[in-house]
Automatic annotation (TrEMBL):
It comes from Tetrabaena socialis. Keywords: Signal. It comes from the Eukaryota. This is C-type lectin domain-containing protein. Residues 1-23 form the signal peptide. The lineage of its organism: Eukaryota, Viridiplantae, Chlorophyta, core chlorophytes, Chlorophyceae.
């Protein structure tokens, strides 16, 4: 697998050099003819695609996310399952690439740091405006997503295989990485997201428990908030600030 990826990347690099020697296309990241390399990851059954092997139109973090979405994909996060894909596509080729991860060191846009996989295989957080390569992956059709009002919201799951008791749902969201958690029921933006992802599909979903809640809050299939027993298996929405 690693050898075949290396060969395909070498071919892509030559093609990029040849095309640049003939004519340099305008760098519109949404329509640029990227040279890519793909890796099928058995860990999560996803296909990971490295964009811009030839470094012809590298992107900042926000643009990389948008390009992935534009192509029906998502910017790949770094998880236990995805480590092999980043190793094969990025580290083994001495590349640097965006990872779908953000940390906040201060308020405002200038306080945001975005995840980068280094050539040495380390995840570091750097300024989000630099341009580097990026890795997109296929989306899980079983997870509904809504990106709105500065938050990334994910419903687990359409087929109800991830229905969990409240404590397990809360732990699941937090395990997605820094900044992830259940949606607060007191946040109007969170209520809107759960209305779209849950109630509009006649789903019932957990929301974040708050001080004073004797039981656990959920949005029912009609869009009403209720406090119910915490041990029942229910869908849930995780979110993270972008």
């Amino acid at each position: 697998m690693g050898a075949s990826i290396a060969v395909s990347i070498a071919i892509a690099l030559f093609a990029a050099w040849l095309s640049s020697a003939q004519a340099t296309p305008t760098c519109d990241p949404f329509y640029f003819p990227y040279n890519t390399a793909a890796y099928y990851n058995g860990g999560d059954c996803g296909t990971y695609t490295l964009f811009d092997v030839g470094a012809g139109c590298m992107a900042d973090f926000a643009t990389a996310r948008l390009v992935c979405e534009f192509k029906g994909l998502e910017l790949a996060p770094l998880t236990e399952d995805s480590k092999g894909a980043f190793q094969a596509l990025v580290v083994d080729n001495n590349f640097t690439a965006w990872v779908d991860d953000v940390e906040w060191v201060d308020q405002g846009e200038e306080g945001r740091r975005c995840g980068v996989m280094t050539q040495e295989g380390y995840l570091v957080y750097q300024g989000c405006k630099q341009t580097v390569r990026f890795v997109c992956r296929t989306k899980d059709a079983n997870i509904l997503e809504l990106i709105k009002d500065g938050f990334h919201n994910r419903l687990y799951t359409v087929d109800a295989t991830e229905r969990l008791p409240y404590v397990s749902a809360d732990a699941f969201c937090k395990a997605l990485g820094a900044g992830w958690g259940l949606v607060p029921r007191s946040d109007p933006r969170g209520l809107y997201a759960c209305q779209r992802l849950c109630a509009d599909n006649a789903y019932t979903c957990w929301m974040m428990r708050e001080d004073g809640d004797g039981q656990c809050p959920l949005m029912d299939a009609r869009g009403d908030l209720q406090l119910q027993g915490c041990e029942q298996d229910v869908r849930f929405v995780c979110r993270k600030k972008l």
